[in-house]
């Protein structure tokens, strides 16, 4: 498995399994177990997904040594703040049946993220998590967080796919030695699999459109966490390291960039208020 080196020196797998919206506990447990058996070593969940317990069972069922795995979970908005972050972290560890995390992320750039970051810096220094980072922090929020705190986030996870390629965002992260991680690599839109350019490239390499997208992301050195509960697709998504897209094909895919989200506008006050008010049983 190809890895990327984070700004604190640890290695992170460049491809993992995401479990957003995998609500059925048995389905989630089985998917995690199958992914690990197929060779995945990065598993990404979140308190807000309400499936950490199932993820923990899947990890345990796989029988793979804990030290071989890279496990990520995230802190939700209502749990931000210094004390509540410590409590939420402990709750996530218990649900996952783990002694430590590999990466702990602030899920959204809302709430008391500064109190949370202070708590996360302490958790990192105490060895409770091997790295800390953020999710859905765009450059202005990220810059503010870095200026006022000691530790620079190791990872920033946000929407990245052929329709929103985050070229400038990745450049900013690279300048600050922060790893970009893509969520929703398929744009939460099944029509992407019928996109003519991507279908043509897939036919050229005798691969699926999903494999072309994942290969395009990893060739850009972007960590990616596709979700699937189908065993065959889990295996297919993993088998992307035995071919390489040409420079011409990489450039061709650039033409699909719309420069905006297909899913959620984090600069829309109405949508931000809605997201900030979402509560989960965590």
Automatic annotation (TrEMBL):
<keyword id="KW-0521">NADP</keyword>
<dbReference type="InterPro" id="IPR036812">
    <property type="entry name" value="NAD(P)_OxRdtase_dom_sf"/>
</dbReference>
<dbReference type="Pfam" id="PF00248">
    <property type="entry name" value="Aldo_ket_red"/>
</dbReference>
<dbReference type="InterPro" id="IPR023210">
    <property type="entry name" value="NADP_OxRdtase_dom"/>
</dbReference>
<dbReference type="InterPro" id="IPR020471">
    <property type="entry name" value="AKR"/>
</dbReference>
<dbReference type="InterPro" id="IPR018170">
    <property type="entry name" value="Aldo/ket_reductase_CS"/>
</dbReference>
<keyword id="KW-0560">Oxidoreductase</keyword>
<comment type="similarity">
    <text>Belongs to the aldo/keto reductase family.</text>
</comment>
<feature type="domain" description="NADP-dependent oxidoreductase">
    <location>
        <begin position="24"/>
        <end position="256"/>
    </location>
</feature>
<protein>
    <submittedName>
        <fullName>Diketogulonate reductase-like aldo/keto reductase</fullName>
    </submittedName>
</protein>
């Amino acid at each position: 498995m190809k890895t990327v080196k984070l700004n604190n020196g640890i290695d992170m797998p460049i491809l993992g399994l995401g479990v957003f919206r995998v609500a059925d506990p048995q389905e989630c447990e089985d998917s995690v177990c199958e992914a690990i058996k197929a060779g995945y070593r990065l598993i990404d969940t979140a308190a807000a997904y309400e499936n950490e317990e199932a993820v923990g069972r899947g990890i345990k069922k796989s029988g793979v040594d804990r030290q071989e795995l890279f496990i990520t979970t995230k802190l939700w908005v209502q749990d931000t703040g210094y004390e509540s972050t410590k409590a939420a972290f402990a709750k996530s560890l218990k649900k996952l049946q783990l002694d430590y995390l590999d990466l702990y992320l602030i899920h959204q750039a809302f709430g008391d993220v500064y109190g949370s970051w202070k708590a996360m810096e302490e958790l990192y220094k105490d060895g409770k998590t091997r790295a800390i980072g953020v999710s859905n922090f765009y450059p202005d929020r990220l810059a503010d967080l870095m200026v006022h705190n000691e530790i620079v986030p190791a990872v920033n996870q946000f929407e990245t796919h052929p329709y929103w390629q985050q070229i400038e965002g990745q450049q900013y992260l690279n300048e600050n030695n922060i790893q970009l991680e893509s969520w929703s690599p398929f744009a939460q839109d099944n029509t992407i699999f019928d996109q003519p350019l991507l279908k043509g490239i897939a036919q050229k390499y005798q691969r699926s459109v999903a494999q072309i997208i994942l290969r395009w992301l990893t060739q850009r050195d972007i960590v990616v966490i596709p979700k699937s509960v189908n065993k065959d697709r889990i295996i297919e998504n993993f088998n992307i390291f035995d071919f390489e897209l040409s420079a011409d094909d990489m450039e061709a895919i650039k033409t699909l960039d719309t420069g905006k989200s297909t899913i959620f506008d984090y600069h829309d006050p109405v949508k931000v208020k809605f997201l900030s008010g979402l509560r989960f049983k965590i």
